[in-house]
Amino acid sequence: MTSFFEIPASIASSWHIITLIGLGLGVGVATGLFGVGGAFLITPLLNIIFNIPYTLATGSSMPFTIGTSVSAWVKHMRLGNVALKTMTILAGGAICGTLLGAKLHIFLKTYFGEFLFTLVMHGIFILVLVVTAAMVWQNQNMNGSGLTTSLLARLPGRPRITIRTAGLTNISLPGLCVLGLLIGVTKGLLGIGGGVLLMPAMLLIVGLTVHQSIGTGLGIVLFSSIAGTIIYGRSGQASLWIVMPLLLGSSIGVQVGVWASRKLHAAHIKKYFSILALLVAVIIIFDFLKKLLSLNP
Amino acid sequence: MEWLWNTIEVVLLVTIPLLWGLGVEYIFEWYRRKKASPDKILNND
Fold this sequence. Notes:
Radius of gyration of chain B: 19 Å
Number of strands of chain B: 0
Largest sheet of chain A: 2 strands, antiparallel
Largest interface: A-B, 27 and 18 residues
Number of helices of chain A: 9
Oligomer: heterodimer
Low-confidence stretches of chain A: none
Shape of chain A: globular
Strand content of chain B: under 5%
Helix content of chain B: over 70%
């Protein structure tokens, strides 16, 4: 018997499975409404609600992201929103970065021990969520039509490439590879990387348009998630028993979210995204404090 | 045999969510097209 056939103890009862489907439904609504992958919600909430260790939660968020990103990526491929050359270069860097991030995850866990590692991960997630919420809140009125010049075009170093689909020239190839690597490290370490980090990076650093950023970003998330699944899955730190109820709920939730997004104003959607990110940050802060207080007798 | 189970597990971890995602997308796409197909409009006429 391997871990594949064993249901993790944290989700052993049918109520846990129902709650997982509910969590997937909620995250699916957020995916459809805000266009985010949802791993930034899934990973910390799996730890807080089900007491699933962060390594298993991060590992299980990888196959979940495969399921959510592949369908949207196929759709964007059909619409011609994917800058293939940029995606290939960034995905290459992101795959290497995911490997490094997973190694860093294991190193930090061994260095700090399970309990302190949970607090460190909580701290990182709080920081990421608060910064993201603040950035989105500040840029509520930004229409995001891409930059006329890419920030990567200002970087020194050769070779340089041209991204014809976005009309960008003289782009630094080493800069693009390093960007992919950094995105991959966060993916491997925290399991996040889609809407939270990739969209702003594509828009503000590479200089793609909004639609190209979404399409290209989804491809990078998909391939780095496959790499992450292989890395975490090899050590038995990803469970289909966690992934499948989440995917089931999210498949329905996404349709609800897409329907709701048509009814709401774009500026309001960004505001709601900031509020959601802050709300999750507050939940993590409460859990952080609860765990800290439990240290003292 | 441990390595074999491990490989099967990793393959399933990648393929099941991949097929699930593609399957759901194609089902909803098929439903949307069916709902908006001109044949249906003609039949209704």
